[in-house]
Amino acid sequence: MVMRAALAILLGSAVIGAGCGDEADQTETTPPDDGPLVTYDRSGGLAYSAQRLVVEGDGAASLVVEGYEKVKSAELQLSEAELDELRAALEEATLESDPGPVTCSDCYSYSIEYGGEQASFDQTAIPPASEPAIGLLEQIVARESPADEVG
Known about the structure:
- The protein is of the alpha+beta class.
- It has helices at about 1-15, 80-90, 130-145, and strands at about 40-45, 50-55, 60-65, 70-75, 110-115, 115-120.
- α2 (about 80-90) packs antiparallel against α3 (about 130-145).
């Protein structure tokens, strides 16, 4: 239960921080050399689950999946082809937050950080240009989720 609370705080701070910063300074679309390529979070749903996937520039990645009182983690390595496909999808993605009210019960909330930009939105407000990137990230999470997945 402590792990769930800690992850909820971490995810909440990521969502709160999504709107911070000067948008005029966020014109760079490539990730900084000293940080991850992309950080992807999804949380919510009917039975509540949270997923965090962090992919480094060399394809090394870590995944944490949380469900009801269970937390699982895995380390993985993306192939060069998968990494290239992910980079291309992220370059095309529209990383903008939807500050509007959540319009669905038990829906998923997403947060993506890439290239110095961070976006947060719920599943009813996914920018169409971001759908391919989210789809790829979701495929990686589904494929790499630890045994007896929790979400």
